[in-house]
Amino acid sequence: MGHTGPVDFHCHLDDPSFDNDRWRIIDRCLAAGFSRLVTVADAYEERSLALTAEILGYRDALAAVAGAHPHQADGYSPLIERRLLAFLDRGPVLAIGEVGLDFHYDFAARENQETVFRRQVALARERSLPLVIHSRQAEGLVLKILDQEKFPLPVVFHCYTGDMATAGEIVRRGYSLSFSGIITFRKADALRAVVAATPLSHLFSETDSPYLAPEPERGKTNTPLAVVRVVEAIAAIKNTGIQDVLDQVAVNYRRFAER
Length: 259
Ligand SMILES: [Zn+2]
Ligand SMILES: [Zn+2]
Hints:
single chain
């Protein structure tokens, strides 16, 4: 390898804030040598699924995950699930995601979040698809559910913001952590310590754009181009070369995608 480009493991290219420049941003990423952009399709939004299908057809370096986000778990229904299954049937989909539990915002009742998450895990197993997890202040229960289900496929905790002990529990199971621009924030020393302790073999880079612009752009609209800042931060924290991080994340991506 040696010239492997960045992977943005998690971005929302369907987001309306990209409506004026979506294709231009994708073209700029590919011109910059990106090896993969993974966009997230939202099963609750027909617009998101249709637009994601269009994005997938646009360029080879694009991949998608699809699933029912915990924020909207109160609205899960047979209709939503049929839409998701139809999207998976049309494929190719990299993983079920982002799915999980969010006990920080609590936008949906916790019992509904848990029911929907268990259902997404079952769908992933039926379809032999790995999982991309969204978890805020709920990693313990997420891991318990994955253990109970004996989930046999790769799992990545996207935009990891949990503590060191939980990160260890995740890696011990063979699962991986994906880090966003939050690791560049001034007050993120504890999270940088988690990055330092996470083996390069179990780590991904992401932007979660249009959210979470890294420093010095914090607060502005984020784009996948900023994943370069995240990769630079990982390299600095781990005291290794930027290309080493790019190469290893590309290896991790292939392991996740090609089972
Ligand atoms: Zn998320
Ligand atoms: Zn997201």
